[in-house]
Specification:
globular; Peptidase_M16; protease; single chain; Cytochrome Bc1 Complex, Chain A, domain 1; 454 residues; hydrolase; 11 strands; 2 domains; metal ion binding; 5-stranded mixed beta sheet; signal
Length: 454
């Protein structure tokens, strides 16, 4: 090939690459614009925050309420209340007979559910849009007229006891998170799980439950989201009619609890009679969810241990065949986060062998910048997550409530992806050096055998 032809060919390839890059950037911009979620938000006089999202593409509407109460708001001698209320407040109201809640929803073709974390409790209904008023009435009833009596409390105690047995006590590896929390936190309420203590629930009085409801289930501690096929003006009137008369609650006094830094490795072990293969967990305390470094740690988690294409899975499971499974949990929370990596050994490989291999990959991350290819791969994953998170009305409703209540920034539903896009490879290296060190973690050996410890 002569030099002129080579130069022209090289120039053509470069032009083609630049054109492809431009098209990709335009496509990403188009996707971002197409995914933008329009919403209105305002407060009622009683302090209830309202967010409305109109999407008339399909005749579906989600009505949801998120309360700013979770396991971290409980008294350390009365744990499990937040999760217990997730169950209790389906028992009935002054205008809904006991046991009728789910029948009302299903007979009108709807779906409903609730869930609790250490930071918040979330209730929602999904109906066809002609049942919007029904959804609003149900949630206003839950807030204004709950019936909290001994029959309901005793019934739900049995339900929660069974859930504890199924999901924690009798489930393989069911108590690893509980044990990690106990060791990772010494002062903060994150040290106990949302299921709480059955002993605390059993010893609680009816008055204890009524006081919890009176304190936290008030309009000024909640956000109402209505999303889907709605008319804004009509919806606002309905909301004012159903929620406006509910009285404001007392201002909630929240404690700020600061943990001492972890300065040396915390070694712990727990025996689980439900398993045959041991596991190793390495847990690191990380920043609260609104901290920029929390976003960087999200990307580190994806790089190291998210899915079968991650560094640790490919190394330990696919290539070296030292592990049956590798898994990770990057838990972003309101006060602190935690990043936990775990693995199950294959054959004669020890838990320490796996931990050494995990550390080897972390040291690489702390020493060298990740490749441009790996960096782009992570970015692509977060772009996909961004698109998928806003792909359903129910998902949008949840995100709007969560960003408002736990991040104090509703518009993150549209702009959070920009934070991930702005994270650099240098930041990834620096944050790994700051948080992922052996002397800053809990090393939990989760072993077969008769249950030990708390």
């Amino acid at each position: 090939m002569d030099y002129l032809h080579y130069t022209r060919t090289k120039h053509y390839i470069k032009m083609k690459a630049n054109l492809l890059l431009t098209i990709c950037l335009m496509l990403l911009a188009t996707i971002s614009k197409a995914q933008e979620v329009a919403y209105q938000e305002y407060n009622l006089d009683n302090g209830l925050h309202v967010i409305l999202h109109q999407d008339n593409a399909a005749p579906v509407v989600t009505t949801s309420v998120m309360y700013h109460v979770g396991a971290k708001d409980e008294n350390e001698n009365k744990t499990g209340f937040a999760h217990f209320f997730e169950h209790l407040l389906f028992e009935g109201t002054a205008n809904i007979e006991r046991g009728e809640w789910f029948k009302i929803v299903s007979s009108n073709g709807g779906q409903n559910n609730a869930n609790t974390t250490q930071d918040r409790t979330y209730y929602y209904e999904v109906f066809t849009s002609n049942n919007l008023e029904l959804g609003l009435w149900l949630e206003s009833e839950r807030l204004m007229h709950p019936v909290i009596n001994q029959i309901g409390v005793d019934t739900q105690k049995e339900v929660v006891q069974e859930e504890r047995r199924m999901r924690y006590d009798n489930s393989p590896y069911g108590r690893w998170q509980e044990q990690m929390g106990i060791n990772l936190y010494k002062k903060h309420p994150y040290r106990w799980q949302t299921i709480g203590s059955l002993e605390h629930l059993a010893s609680a009085s009816l008055e204890d439950f009524k006081n919890f409801n009176k304190t936290y289930y008030v309009p000024n501690n909640a956000v109402l989201v209505v999303a889907g096929d709605i008319d804004i003006a009509t919806t606002k009137k309905m909301i004012n009619d159903y929620f406006g008369p509910i009285p404001r609650g007392e201002k909630i006094q929240r404690k700020t609890i600061t943990e001492d830094p972890i300065a040396q490795t915390i070694k712990a072990s727990y025996k689980d009679p439900n398993i045959q293969i041991p596991a190793i967990f390495a847990g690191y305390r990380t920043p609260k969810n609104t901290d920029r470094e929390a976003y960087v740690l999200d990307m580190i988690s994806t790089y190291l241990s998210s899915g079968k294409s991650s560094k640790l899975y490919k190394k330990l499971v696919d290539e070296e065949k030292k592990a049956v499974q590798v898994f990770a949990f990057n838990i972003s929370q309101e006060d602190y986060g935690s990043y936990v990596i775990g693995a199950l050994p294959l054959g004669e490989n020890s838990l320490q062998d796996l931990l050494n291999e995990i550390d080897e990959e972390i040291v690489k991350l702390q020493t060298d910048l990740i490749s441009e290819k790996d960096y782009q791969k992570i970015q692509n994953k977060f772009e996909n997550q961004f698109v998928n998170s806003n792909s359903s009305i129910a998902g949008i409703a949840n995100s709007l409530a969560r960003y408002y209540l736990l991040y104090d920034n509703t518009d993150l539903i549209n702009s959070e992806i920009e934070i991930y896009r702005s994270v650099t490879r240098e930041e990834i290296k620096n944050v790994a050096n700051k948080y992922l060190n052996p002397n800053q973690r809990v090393e939990l050996q989760y072993l077969p055998g008769e249950s030990t410890g708390k």
